[in-house]
C-alpha cells in the first residue's frame, strides 16, 4: 500500500486544500497520472500517483484543508501489473500523456469533461460553454490557464456576460392607500433579512480562505507599523520619455524596485526574516512582486534581483506577472522571498497600509502617481509652485526587527534613488 500525500509546495506553504478528485476508489491509475487537484493561497497544483496501481480509500475529501505531508489517499501499488512495475509518463505539448514502452494502449483516460471548481466558476461568470473549449491539461482537461487565454483573446463562444449581473429582484408596485382605513393591529417587527432584502451566498474560494488565514496570522505575529514618504517621479518620467517605443522601456514600478534593491544593500535589516528569537539576514535580495489575479493575489519572486540591470529587472517583472496571470507559475516561483513590493497604485489607490508577507519584516506599497502642485526650489534658491508627478511610498514593517528611525532612513534612501532615476 502506497500513500498519496499533500506535497510540499514551497518553504512558506504549510497546507493545501483538495479541490477535486479526478479518480475514484477502484480506478486504475498510471504512475505520475494526476489523481487530484489541490490549491494554496499561492498556486494550484496537480497531484500525481507515485506508482502504478489501483486507487484505494480516499482519506481527504474535496474542500478539506490539511498540512503538507498528510496522506490524501491510499494506492494499491501494482494493480493489474507487477508490484515492482512503474510506468513513466510525460505530458506532451498538446496535453496528452505519452507512456514509456510496456504500457498498454488506451491506458490514458479522457478527462476532458472533468472541471475543477475554479474552472466552473470562471466559465459561469463569462458565459463560456466548457464543452466547446479545447483543454491543454492531462487527458484533455480544461485548465484555468485555458480559460484565461480564451478570455484574453476575446474569442469566447459569443455569449460572455458581465461578471456582475443585475439582481432579478424588483419591488412590486403598491396600490394607493384608501382615504380612510381602520387602525391595524400592531405588526411584528421586521427581521434583519427582511430589512436587508434579497441576497445570494457563495462559499469563499480555497485561495481566499488561505489568504485570509495567512493575513490574520501575519497580523497576530508581527508588530505592524507603517511609514509613508512622498516621492517626485519627474526624473523617472523623463527617463521613460527617452526610452519611448523601446520594448525594454521600464515601468515606474521598475524604478521603485531598482531603488528598493539598492537601498536594501545599505539597510540589510529590511532584507531579513524572523525565525523564533533570531533575525536572519539574507545576502541575496529575492524580491517578491505581488500580482493581482481574478480571484486573489500571488507573489512570484525574482531571485538575486541585485544582479539585474534596470532593463533586466523590467523584463523579469513583466515575465513573472504574465506567467502568474496565465496560471503557469511553478511552486518554486512563489517561495524564498526576502522583501515584497505591492503595486495597488496601478488601480488608482493613493494610500494603503499593507500586511507583511511572513516571515519577512517589510513590504512596500507603491501608490498611484498623480500630478500635483508642489513647492520647488530654483537654482538661485527661490521657491515656486510647480506641477510634478508625485506618489506615496507606504512601507509596513515589523517593530520586532527595527525601529521607526531605521524605517524612515530606509524609505528616505528609496525616495532619493527614485528621484534620481537618471541612471
Q: What is the H level of CATH, i.e. the homologous superfamily of the largest domain?
A: Chloramphenicol acetyltransferase-like domain
Q: SSE order in H/E notation?
A: EEEEEEEEEEHHHHEHHEEEEEEHEEEEH
Q: How much β-strand is present in the residues? A: 25-35%
Query: Kindly, what is the distance between the CA atoms of the first and last residues, rounded to a whole number of angstroms?
Result: 62 Å
* CATH topology title of the largest domain: Chloramphenicol Acetyltransferase
**The top level CATH class name of the largest domain:** Alpha Beta
User: Mean pLDDT, as a whole number?
Assistant: 82
CATH architecture of the largest domain: 2-Layer Sandwich
What would you say this structure looks like, in words?
The chain has 423 residues and is an alpha+beta fold. The chain has three domains: 102 residues, RNA polymerase II/Efflux pump adaptor protein, barrel-sandwich hybrid domain (OB fold (Dihydrolipoamide Acetyltransferase, E2P)), CATH 2.40.50; 55 residues, no CATH class; 211 residues, Chloramphenicol acetyltransferase-like domain (Chloramphenicol Acetyltransferase, 2-Layer Sandwich), CATH 3.30.559. The protein contains eight helices and 21 strands.
Q: Which structural traits does this protein have?
A:
423 residues, Chloramphenicol Acetyltransferase, four-stranded antiparallel sheet, globular, 8 helices
Amino acid at each position: 500500500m502506497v500513500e498519496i500525500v499533500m506535497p510540499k509546495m514551497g518553504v512558506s506553504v504549510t497546507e493545501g486544500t483538495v479541490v477535486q478528485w479526478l479518480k475514484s476508489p477502484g480506478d486504475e491509475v498510471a504512475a505520475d497520472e494526476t489523481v487530484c487537484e489541490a490549491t494554496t493561497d499561492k498556486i494550484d497544483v496537480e497531484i500525481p500517483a507515485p506508482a502504478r496501481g489501483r486507487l484505494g480509500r480516499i482519506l481527504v475529501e474535496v474542500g478539506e484543508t490539511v498540512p503538507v505531508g498528510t496522506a490524501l489517499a491510499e494506492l494499491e501499488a501494482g494493480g493489474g501489473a507487477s508490484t515492482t512495475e512503474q510506468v513513466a509518463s510525460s505530458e506532451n505539448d498538446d496535453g496528452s500523456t505519452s507512456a514509456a514502452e510496456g504500457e498498454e494502449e488506451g491506458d490514458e483516460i479522457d478527462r476532458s469533461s472533468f472541471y475543477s471548481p475554479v474552472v466552473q466558476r470562471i466559465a459561469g461568470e463569462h458565459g463560456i460553454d466548457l464543452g466547446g473549449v479545447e483543454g491543454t491539461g492531462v487527458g484533455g482537461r480544461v485548465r484555468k490557464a485555458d480559460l484565461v487565454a480564451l478570455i484574453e483573446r476575446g474569442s469566447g463562444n459569443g455569449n460572455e456576460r458581465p461578471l456582475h449581473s443585475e439582481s432579478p429582484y424588483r419591488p412590486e408596485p403598491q396600490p394607493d392607500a384608501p382615504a380612510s382605513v381602520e387602525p391595524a393591529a400592531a405588526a411584528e417587527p421586521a427581521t434583519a433579512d427582511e430589512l436587508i432584502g434579497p441576497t445570494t451566498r457563495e462559499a469563499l474560494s480555497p485561495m481566499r480562505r488561505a489568504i485570509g488565514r495567512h493575513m490574520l496570522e501575519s497580523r497576530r505575529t508581527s508588530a505592524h507599523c507603517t511609514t509613508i514618504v512622498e516621492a517626485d517621479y519627474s526624473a523617472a518620467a523623463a527617463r521613460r520619455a527617452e526610452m519611448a517605443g523601446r520594448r525594454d522601456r521600464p515601468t515606474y514600478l521598475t524604478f521603485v524596485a531598482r531603488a528598493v534593491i539598492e537601498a536594501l544593500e545599505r539597510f540589510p535589516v529590511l532584507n531579513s526574516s524572523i525565525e523564533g528569537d533570531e533575525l536572519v539576514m539574507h545576502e541575496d535580495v529575492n524580491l517578491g512582486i505581488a500580482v493581482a489575479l481574478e480571484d486573489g493575489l500571488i507573489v512570484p519572486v525574482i531571485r538575486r534581483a541585485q544582479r539585474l540591470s534596470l532593463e533586466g529587472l523590467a523584463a523579469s517583472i513583466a515575465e513573472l506577472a504574465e506567467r502568474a496571470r496565465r496560471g503557469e507559475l511553478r511552486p518554486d516561483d512563489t517561495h524564498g522571498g526576502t522583501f515584497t513590493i505591492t503595486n495597488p497604485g496601478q488601480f488608482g489607490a493613493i494610500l494603503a497600509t499593507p500586511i507583511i508577507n511572513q516571515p519577512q519584516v517589510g513590504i512596500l506599497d507603491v501608490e498611484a502617481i498623480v500630478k500635483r502642485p508642489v513647492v520647488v526650489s530654483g537654482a538661485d534658491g527661490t521657491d515656486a509652485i510647480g506641477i510634478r508627478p508625485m506618489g506615496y511610498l507606504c512601507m509596513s514593517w515589523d517593530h520586532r526587527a527595527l525601529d521607526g528611525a531605521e524605517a524612515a532612513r530606509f524609505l528616505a534612501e528609496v525616495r532619493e534613488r527614485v528621484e534620481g532615476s537618471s541612471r
